[in-house]
Structure formats: C-alpha cells, structure tokens
Amino acid sequence: MIRAENVTKIFGSDPESAIPLLEENKTKDEIRELTGQTVGVNKASFDIQQGEVFAIMGLSGCGKSTLIRCINRIIDPTAGHIFFKHPERGEVDITQLDEEALRTLRKQNMSMVFQHFALLPHRTVLSNVGYGMEIQGRGRRDRQKAAQRVLDMVGLGPWGSSYPSELSGGMQQRVGLARGLATDAEVLLMDEPFSALDPLIKVDMQQELTRIQRELHRTILFITHDLDEAMRIGDHIAIMEDGKIVQIGSPEQILVNPRTEYVAKFVEHADPTGVITASTIALPLDSDKFVSGGERDGISYLHRQDLPNVRYGMDREGRLHDVQLDGQDVPVRRLEEVLEDESARPASSERTGLALTCGEDAVLRHILRSRLHSTLPVVVTNGDGRIRGLIDDPELINGILEKRGHIP
Amino acid sequence: MPNPPPARYRRWHAVPIIQQNWGSNRMGELVEFLRVLMTDPFGFIDLPVRQVITDIVNWIVATFRDFSRTYISPPVRGVMNGVQWGLSSVPPGAFILATFVLGWWAASWRVGVFSVIAFALIGFMGVWDQMIITLSLVVTAVFFCVLIGLPLGILSSRSDRFYGFMRPVLDIMQTTPPFVYLVPAVMLFSIGNVPGLIATIVFAMPPVIRLTNLGIRHVNPEFIEAAVAFGSTKRQILWKVQFPLAMPTIMAGLNQTIMLALSMVVIAAIIGAGGLGLEVYAGLERLNIGQAFVGGIGIVLLAMVLDRITQGLGEKAPGVRDRGE
C-alpha cells in the first residue's frame, strides 16, 4: 500500500550537502559536525501492506514524527521516494506530486490523527469530525450524518454538540480518531495518538482501535515511543534510532531476534507473554531430544528424552493420533476449548489426565494458563493437524525469561 | 616619509583634506578638525527635512486634491450621513433600551445597566445630539478602519515582506502626533467632518492591522498542521481555522481602534468636526469650563460603554474556547 524507499530528511540551510555523507554511512553527529545540517530521517525504507497496522517505534527525537509527516508531505523529504498504491490511478510517487495532487491525496486517501488531538476549539465535536468531509466538498446533511455515524462508532454518539474543551483527553482523542476515519481515506497516519493519555485510558484506546480496525481494515501507520503499545497494535514494527530504521519485523521477530543492541535494550523490558507464539518456543519434532518408540498398526510412537512415560502416536501424515501416559490413553482436547471453560478447572490430581493441543499461533499467555488444566506437554499442531513440536516447562521458562526460541 | 592614515579612519569625509595637507602643517590641521568635530559636528551636514516634507506635502496636495475630493470624500461622507441618519432617527428612549440589551447580551447585565446610566446622564446633561454625532463619526471611522485594516492585517500575516513594509508605516501612523496630520487632511479635504474622519481613520487603523496580523500568526501551528493534513487550501485554512481562532485578538484590536477613534474624533473638532469634541473645543475657546467639561464627561461615558461592550464581544468570539483548555 505504501512503500518508502530511502526516505531522507535533512534539516538545515543546505540539506543537499549532507546527502553524500549519508551515503558514506556517517553518523548524525558526524554530519552535524561537518556540515551543520541535522539529519531527521536517514534513508528509511519500508513496505506497508494493505489493511495492516504498521507501527514505528523509537525514542523522542529519533525522527519518527518527521518520517510520518514525510508520508503525507507535511514535511518534504530531502531525498527518496514514497510509493502509494492509489485505488484508481495505480502506483503514484508521493514525492513527485504537485501541490494540487497532493491536496487531493490528503483529502481522499490519507488522513491523520495527532498526539495533542489538534481539534479545532471553535467547532463542535460533530463539526470537527466533519472537517475532512467539508474539505472534500460533501454536502452539509450528508456530512453530518456520516460524522454522527463515525462518532457512534467511537462511542461518543451523544457528544456531537459539545465543544472539544468540554471533553476529557481520552474522549478528545476519540474525536480525533473519528475525524481521521470519517473521510474514508485508505491510509490513516497516527502520530503518537495515545501518548498524551493516562495509562488506563491508553489501554482502552488501544483496544478500541484494534476493534475498529477489525471492522474497517484501514491501512494504519502508527507512531509510538512505547514498545508494548507497538507490540499490541502493530502487525509489523519498525524500530528507529537516530533517524534510521534499525529493524523491521513482526512483534515476535523483534522480541525474539533483536538485531542491534539498541533494540535488545528495548525488548528486555517488553512483556513477551502476549507476543511470543507456540511455534517459536516449541521443541521441534526434528530435534534430537525426541526418541522414537516403535510403530504399531501404522501409528508411529515417540517420546521426549526427558519424559519417557508420555508417548505420542502419529499417523503416516504426521497427524496426532493419540497420547499415552504410562501406556494408558489420555483424552486430548484443544487448548482454546479448555480456556473458554474457565470454571471447569480440575483439581490438581486430575491435571495429569489430559493432553492439550494448540495451533502454531497460540500466544505464550494462553499456553501458560493452560497449565492449570494439564501438566502434560502441549502438542503444537499446524493447520492440517500435523505435529510441529511440544511445549513443556523448559520451553515455557525459556520463552519468558530468555525470550528465545527457534524462530526462523 | 609620512605614513598614510590607517585604513579605518578613511571613512571620515574630512580625510582627503588631511591627506592633501599631510606633511605641511599636519598637526595644526588635525587639531582644528577634531575641535570642530567635537564642538559643532552638525555643521558638516544640513538635512533639508523641513523643505523636503513641505515639498512632498505640497506635491501630494496639488496632485491628489481633486482625486480625494471626488473619490474619497463622497463614500466617507455617504457612510457617515447614513450612520448619523440611522442613529439619530432612533428615539432616545429606544436607543437606551437597545444599548441595555446589547450590553447585557455582549457582556453582562451589569454592563447593560451601566450603559443605561451612562446614556441617560449624557441626555440629562443636554449633549445627546452631540453624542449621536460623535458616535456616528466613531462608527464610520471604525467601519473604514476594519474595511481597510482587516485585509492589510491578513496580508501582513501571510507575507513577512509585506509586514516588513507595513511596520514602519504603522509606526509612523501611530506615533505621529495627531495634530500633525490634521493639516494635510485639511489641505486635501477642506474642513468639516470628512477631513476629521480621514485623519481619524488613519490614526485609528494600526491596531486592527497589527492585531489581525498578530492573531493570525499566533494561531497554534498544530491546528494549521491538522487542517493541512486534511487537504485544506490556504484560503480554507485562513477562513476555517486561522481567522476564527484569531478572533479574540482581532476583537482586542477593534476595541483599541474604537478608543483611538474616539480620542481622535475629539481632536478633529479643531478642523471642524462636530459632536462632543466640538463642545469641548468651543468651551475651551470661550473659556466656558462648564461646557468643556460636559463634553469631556460625555466622551468618557461614551468611551466606557463602547469599551465594555466591545470587550464583551471579544470574549464571546469563538476562538476564545482555545484558552479554556
């Protein structure tokens, strides 16, 4: 949907002078020393898929706010290209657009949500939400109806005739979000939208955004300085340091394989339980810690080296057939089923009498909780039911403490 | 071999003289030069400012007198007559009631009551008709100040170069003693209410320009960024964002303009403008202190009412909500 190629922004009297130095991989400080120019964004490249939330994470001053403003050219990038897949006109290079085309793009295809809300104080909430549509030239009636619908969606239906100053911070940002959504733009740029909110309200808003996004499938570029927020919201995360994108990946990839020390330092304090998935931490089937236990009636059995009394049978396709504890069949259930039925938590003596299976994308948090129902290793299966690996206590502990796994 | 004087002294225009005589009686020449420089430095140059300005004004008057009397006087006089006719055709009782409602609506019931008292006093002192004239002069002057000043203010806010040009002009307009431009006003427009009005418009306009400019420039850039992000044109930004948000500041400018207009309208009595100012002026001329004071009190009362009401309007302006945050 949006593809950035070496987007660079240099502030100063002679930005061009710094470009060759960037090519030589000089740092921000060296360039300031040599030319007096300040590097805002240093050759940022990324690719945002349609319908995903792409989070850019970095500390203040790392250039993330500059970068997001380059996308809709509130700030003109010094170099680089930004390609946008226009729904009608195919791929356009935003950096090459003239004033008029740029305004049309902002009107129809890209809207924005701001850190400090930037709601117009002299307009009512409804009229603020309708601002973008007003610029689009839509009629008053139509605009009010559409604005009311979006306002209902963010849960502020009855507040349309209030003024922004009468609303709390969280409510104001809901209005900001509604204004951004109301124009039906394909792309929503969000510049630290929840940073100015109280922690509790912030979590509310994150859930609200996730809910709305499930419904609307917009393409969202989300700026934040909070890694946990990025992990909760982002399908992909780009981490920025000193104007440079140092790593791009899924939350899990970043958590498990931080590419630089800087990223590692961030990740150290992140909460892994909602991010790391079963496939990452499972002991894979091809590991040498599995011992084959013979074959019977076309079912081959194997067990873990450290747990010889639990045997797993699988058919020729590699699908789980049965689980045996000390030679006795034990019932097998899906992890999701068990978790839904929270009240039926068994006594601890019964916890050995049940085996659980989970999908590859089950998150650590759910697997941990399942230990209340079953102490046997969790069997990880893929979509066709083939066994991928096992998760027992060592894998869980490694996953939480070391945030380490066998990720490709 | 005498050394030439060091380079940094060459700026002196006397240096060539010294250089010519260098070597002969050089010490004496130098001492004489320094003595003159210290005791009578202004003898070197005679700036003919007085003559130049007289020439300029004479040229302006000769060139523009016909133009100003055919094209500027009539609209100004027309608006003034219209306003005056409108105001004087309202019966005083209804007028006072209207000011009460206006004061109440714009500010508070206190201001309403105060307006009633003030206008009643003016009436009881027997200067109602003069007050109406003064009020119509002020309204007319303010009307033209806004008509001309607002666009200039907006232009100043959008172009640094234009504001750079406007600033000295505004300084001159505001700091030149009001008496000084009564004279060219008379020369261009003869005597009476119109030249008084012209002088008043020139004198009272700067605050509208300055504060419109200031108000628009001080609109929080966040709001402008938001407007840009949604694809607004410059004109849309101006009318939908900057102007409404600058409204409180512009209203403060309007308030100042009204006050300046009121003070100038009084001075303009010297060149034949009527109203309360004429009352003051005539009273002073005849050493009728009582009459002069009645006019003066009337002006003060009128000024206070206008001030309270326009301040109230300023606080009602939409952009004020910004400050509530």
3D structure, described in words:
The complex is a heterodimer of chains A (408) and B (325). Chain A is α/β, with parallel strands linked by helices and 408 residues long. Chain A has 2 domains: 2-109 and 185-268, P-loop containing nucleotide triphosphate hydrolases (Rossmann fold, 3-Layer(aba) Sandwich); 278-402, CBS-domain. Chain A is built from 16 helices and 20 strands. Chain A has helices at 19-23, 28-35, 64-71, 99-108, 125-129, 131-136, 140-153, 169-182, 199-216, 227-233, 251-256, 261-268, 278-281, 335-340, 364-370, 393-402; strands at 2-11, 38-48, 53-57, 79-86, 90-93, 110-113, 187-191, 219-224, 236-241, 244-249, 283-284, 290-296, 299-304, 307-314, 320-325, 328-330, 332-334, 355-359, 378-381, 387-391. In chain A, helix 7 packs across helix 8. The mean pLDDT of chain A is 86. Chain B has 325 residues and is mainly α. Chain B is built from 14 helices and no strands. Helix content of chain B is 78%, strand content 0%. The termini of chain B are far apart. The radius of gyration of chain B is 27 Å and the shape is globular. Classes of the chains: A alpha/beta (408), B mainly alpha (325).
Could you give a short description of this structure?
Chain A has helices at residues 19-23, 28-35, 64-71, 99-108, 125-129, 131-136, 140-153, 169-182, 199-216, 227-233, 251-256, 261-268, 278-281, 335-340, 364-370, 393-402; strands at 2-11, 38-48, 53-57, 79-86, 90-93, 110-113, 187-191, 219-224, 236-241, 244-249, 283-284, 290-296, 299-304, 307-314, 320-325, 328-330, 332-334, 355-359, 378-381, 387-391.
